[in-house]
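User: Need the bound-state model for flavin-adenine dinucleotide:
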Amino acid sequence: MMLGLLLARAGVEVLVLEKHADFLRDFRGDTIHPSTLEVMRELGFLDALLQLPHQKAARINAQFGDLALTVADFAYLKTRCPYILFMPQWDFLNFLADKATRYPTFRLQMNAQVTGLITEGNTVTGIQAETSQGPLRVHAPLVIGADGRHSTVRECAGLRGLEFGAPMDVLWFRLSRKPRDPTDPLGRFDRGRIFIMLNRDTYWQCGFVISKGAYEQIREGGLPALRKRIAKSAPFIADRVGELQDWEAVKLLTVQVDRLDRWYKPGLLCIGDAAHAMSPVGGVGINLAIQDAVAASNLLASPLREGRLTVPDLHRVQQRRAWPTVMTQRLQLFLQNRVIGRVLDTTQPLSTPLVLRLLARFPFLRAIPARLIGIGFRPEHVKTQSVWPDETASG
Ligand SMILES: Cc1cc2nc3c(=O)[nH]c(=O)nc-3n(C[C@H](O)[C@H](O)[C@H](O)COP(=O)(O)OP(=O)(O)OC[C@H]3O[C@@H](n4cnc5c(N)ncnc54)[C@H](O)[C@@H]3O)c2cc1C
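Assistant: Bound-state model below.
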């Protein structure tokens, strides 16, 4: 959606196909990072976005064994919006769709599931889709696979990559939130348990981290046992764990971390999760996907508009975005394997890692996690110009 908006704004004809009828999906991250808010500001959309219901988190707190501390403090960031904004992903997508459809070169077709690619030799020249009106074939000088971590486009293009294991999966669920509860996002680490809580005003979006593949065993143990473990992780919420009435309320996220070797082939480019599924560590997948979109539009808008797109242009997008992706995944894998895996496996009292002791002692160090989570390794800025009158989308 973001890349479609940016290309259409720069005068490129765009068709976005979305397989669902709406964007009302289950929770898959409601975070909008400072760097994305900066992109919104550059586009002139920030004030309108901030009119939508949201919450702000200026810091991220953790409880590691007996030590309670702030691990990331966004106040250190020199940016217009030094906080993580929480907004349902469907509100953000509808907002972008609304802005994008004001550009005459943008079209969004819902209920349109891409099922295959049209090719000539090794070159992709379009897509085949199933829509509510029947089969659809579209020819295009470039197909962008931005269809997530189970990407059909990537699969059809035969693009392959590296898969990195993960020691954990995550159970997601909601519990109600009371006015006297804490406000900041919270991660609680204790022997054998990691519990994440995100403040969504009237409820907590909760993530209970479990060892990889342990879901069936936890289900066999029954809901009362899970409720007990949750209550132990966050005693202030013990009075509400009964809200988990059945397993329907608990969604399993199978953690997947991978990265394509090559993100493109003639006529096709993958970005976002389709090119690199991120670990949930740090909650940065949306940010990376948006940054890919900004970089892709900066590099591809002119060649596309002028009909001179070449394979080296696509290579430049990967070259630009591979480094921040690799660095982020390396950091995530380090934390997954060295901290999360160990906490989940241990039955002994936790010894506090040096990095957390330093963060507790020297508050200015909290600027580093804030920068890594909120901005990332290579923030992108909108370099393309709108070809439309100013009021087209900002009105
Ligand atoms: C449970 C969960 C929690 C998460 N929490 C966070 C978080 O807190 N913060 C964070 O930054 N990230 C989080 N993530 C990761 C984040 O959701 C992704 O990294 C991010 O959404 C990737 O964006 P994307 O546009 O590449 O793909 P997606 O957001 O997956 O979007 C892909 C789109 O393509 C559509 N689509 C798929 N196949 C087809 C097809 N064949 N034809 C047409 N349309 C198709 C899908 O319906 C979807 O709308 C979470 C993920 C999950 C699963």
